[in-house]
Design goal:
Length: 410
């Protein structure tokens, strides 16, 4: 059965609107994707018909909401092919999940803890959310950050990674898909290198889970992070996958309700994972919406969506190749549908402003990747990123907008 992009678009109410008097060509999906009606209706139904707090109540509404909430956890586990729902921790987003892991590792005792002189290896193309929490461990615990370069397309040299690691390396934190270059890290191969050296592997999957099937068992990573709003779900919720035996060694990151076992005046004992890491009232409605978004993706076909995006990306690259005044950064052959670029003579912010006047939404700036910008020798780029609903017409509108930029700044 062929992929019907028009039918997909019809499920997203916002795509029918105009911007600046023109049809909306939304190409800012790497920042946040739009929401299908299935997500909107799932959250509305939960608020209108069955809302209560989860886990603690004995009444009907509490039981119904808890069932929906935990169903969402099962959906996340299935989507990532996690062995157990006990390995899925709901968070307030990808950034929160990364801080959770960093904070817990920094507070942990024994071999798993990260302290003075322990090393954390990062790539230069990491998002700030996968950099700053580790800097906090550098500042507070004396950890040492080590950096691995990437080539112009964002590819990682596995031999260079192995050479960089030492007996003090505790963790390698790497993005699955770069939010600037679209490059896919060879996570499975990285996992073998990392585990052979006795370290843990943390993967930022906030882009990776969007653009193709993720199987955390096959990847063999110790942690994998996703955020709902890039997966057609709501903001304010994400999920952390962690191997059961690894999570069991980590202390809580936040204190409060749900994460406790026994609380007394002189002592406190803690719940088992995942609830050990879910203090207080969780993002209930958001988690329900998250589950609905993943179910929507599964119904449309994660592979089919990725293949559609690849086709649109190929068309975009073909159109852009005819514009010798546009520089595109990162051309890895299996890259995700993300294009970072600059237009000769124009700042990225000006590019985005002119495109907006043509109804085209793109991102501009350093994309929370300042080390990568330094590596590329630029201060900013514009970025067009595609999704399940992106069409060739969107790309044509985008390219026509770029020609308008050229007229103004060329």
């Amino acid at each position: 059965m062929s992929y019907d992009v028009d039918a997909v678009r019809a499920e997203f109410p916002i795509l029918s609107r105009e911007v600046q008097g023109r049809p909306l060509a939304y190409l800012d999906n790497a920042a946040s994707a739009q929401k299908p009606r299935a997500v909107i209706e799932a959250m509305s139904a939960a608020m209108e018909g069955e809302y209560a707090n989860v886990h603690r109540g004995l009444h009907t509404l509490a039981n119904e909401t808890t069932e929906r909430f935990e169903r969402a956890r099962k959906t996340v586990a299935r989507f990532l092919n996690a062995p157990s729902t006990d390995e899925i921790v709901f968070t307030s987003g990808g950034t929160d999940a990364m801080n959770l892991v960093a904070g817990a590792l920094g507070a942990a005792e024994g071999e798993i803890g990260i302290g003075e002189g322990d090393e954390i290896v990062l790539s230069v193309m990491e998002h700030h959310s996968n950099i700053v929490p580790w800097h906090l461990l550098r500042e507070r615990n004396g950890a040492v950050l080590k950096w691995i370069d990437v080539d112009a397309d964002g590819r990682i040299d596995l031999d260079a990674l192995d050479a960089l690691m030492t007996d003090r390396t505790k963790l390698v934190a790497i993005t699955h898909v770069s939010n600037v270059l679209g490059a896919r890290s060879p996570v499975k191969e990285i996992a073998r290198t990392v585990h052979d050296r006795g370290a843990l592997l943390f993967v930022d999957g906030c882009q990776g889970a969007v653009h193709g099937r993720v199987d955390v068992q096959d990847l063999d990573c110790d942690f994998y992070v996703v955020t709902a709003h890039k997966l057609y779900g709501p903001t304010g919720v994400g999920a952390l996958y962690g191997k059961r035996d690894v999570l069991a060694q980590l202390p809580p990151f936040k204190g409060g309700g749900e994460m406790i076992d026994v609380v007394e005046k002189t002592r406190v004992t803690y719940n088992d994972p995942p609830h050990r890491f879910e203090a207080g009232t969780p993002p209930i409605l958001e988690a329900i919406g998250f589950g609905a978004a993943l179910e929507w993706m599964e119904a449309r076909g994660v592979k089919a969506i990725a293949e559609h995006e690849a086709g649109v990306l190929a068309y975009a690259n073909e159109r852009l190749s005819a514009l010798n005044w546009v520089e595109v950064y990162g051309q890895a052959p299996d890259k995700a549908a993300i294009i970072a670029f600059n237009v000769d003579g124009a700042h990225a912010h000006d590019v985005a402003t002119v495109l907006d006047r043509k109804g085209v939404a793109v991102r501009a700036g350093h994309h929370c990747c300042q080390p990568l910008m330094t590596h590329l020798g630029v201060t900013a780029t514009a970025r067009a990123s595609m999704a399940a609903y992106t069409t060739r017409a969107d790309i044509d509108q985008f390219v026509d907008g770029l020609k308008s930029v050229r007229k103004l700044f060329g």
